[in-house]
Structures are given as structure tokens and as C-alpha cells.
Specification:
2 domains; single chain; about 45% helix
Length: about 70
């Protein structure tokens, strides 16, 4: 009986660890969301009507530079 309890405990701990790692990955994959993004090269402010992640912000329309910083 005790070995089955230990096996169940080990299985539940493994599930908990996998869920924690997955939640951490989800949190980091979304990254920052912002309505305003500033170009690192020319300082142009790119505006959106709703908060978007870095992937959706795209490139600077003025200089085509790919690095944008969120303005919170």
C-alpha cells in the first residue's frame, strides 16, 4: 500500500513540475505587450489601437529597423 502511495506521489510531483515549466514558458513566450513601440535606431514611435506583442509590432515604418522597445 505504501509503495503505491509513493508512486502516486511521484507521478503527481512530476505533473506539477511539468505544469510549472509550461507556465513559465508561456509567460516568457508572450513577452511584453504594448500599445506603443519605440524604434531603437531612429526613435520613431509606432502606435497601435490595442496592446500587441513584439512579433506583431514588426519593423519600424520609417527606417525598417527590426529592434523596437515597448513604451509602457
Amino acid at each position: 500500500m505504501e509503495s503505491s502511495n509513493q508512486a502516486l506521489k511521484d507521478a503527481l510531483e512530476a505533473i506539477r513540475d511539468m505544469a510549472s515549466k509550461t507556465l513559465d514558458q508561456i509567460g516568457t513566450s508572450h513577452g511584453e505587450r504594448s500599445m506603443r513601440w519605440r524604434c531603437n535606431a531612429c526613435q520613431y514611435l509606432k502606435h497601435f489601437t490595442k496592446a500587441v506583442p513584439f512579433e506583431a509590432a514588426g519593423k519600424c515604418p520609417r527606417c525598417k529597423h527590426a529592434e523596437l522597445t515597448p513604451i509602457l
